[in-house]
Design a protein that fits this description.
Blueprint lengths: L1 H15 L2 E7 L14 E8 L2 H4 L13 E5 L5 E7 H9 L3 H7 L4 E4 L1 H13 L2 H5 L1 H9 L4 H6 L1
Parallel strand pairs: 2-4
Antiparallel strand pairs: 1-2, 1-5, 3-4
Length: 152
């Protein structure tokens, strides 16, 4: 199945003109409670080509434009990916899905940029810090910015 997943990721990159930064298992298989008929829930973060971002209209961060979806004909592979901007916006909100994906024990692909994103999510947006936003701020999430130096 690993070969099928890698083929799916390569196919999506070529057909959708994206670059996948991080891909992981996001469903029951990742957390050890898959059944015999469980599908593979491949979740990923991608970046779109430069021309997607360099344009007069603002690039959408919601809806179909910022999401890539694929379901195999046999319904065994279910792939869903967010573009980087949307993923970052979801991580910054109290949305557990991208955090779950960044903590997944099953990683299908990870680039240096993907590892940096996963590290950011694990380090600065843990569930404990979500319960205490002030602690997250003071812990250094925004350290180095003039706004953080003025508030800490």
């Amino acid at each position: 199945m690993q070969d099928d997943i890698q083929s799916l990721l390569a196919e999506l990159e070529a057909s959708r003109r994206i670059r996948i930064l991080h891909a992981c298992e996001g469903g029951s298989r990742a957390w050890g409670f898959a059944s015999a008929d469980s599908d593979f829930d491949v979740r990923f973060v991608h970046v779109k080509p430069r021309e997607w971002h360099v344009r007069l209209q603002e690039a959408p961060t919601t809806g179909k434009a910022s999401v890539v979806e694929h379901k195999s004909e046999d319904r065994v592979l279910d792939g869903v990916g967010w573009d980087l901007r949307r993923a970052l916006l979801l991580v910054a909100k109290p949305n557990p899905s991208p955090l779950e994906h960044m903590h997944s024990p099953i990683v299908y692909r990870n680039t240096p940029d993907g590892e940096e994103l996963a590290g950011l999510a694990r380090r600065d947006f843990s569930s404990k810090r979500r319960l205490h936003p002030t602690r997250a701020w003071r812990s250094g999430f925004a350290r180095g910015t003039s706004a953080a130096r003025g508030c800490a």
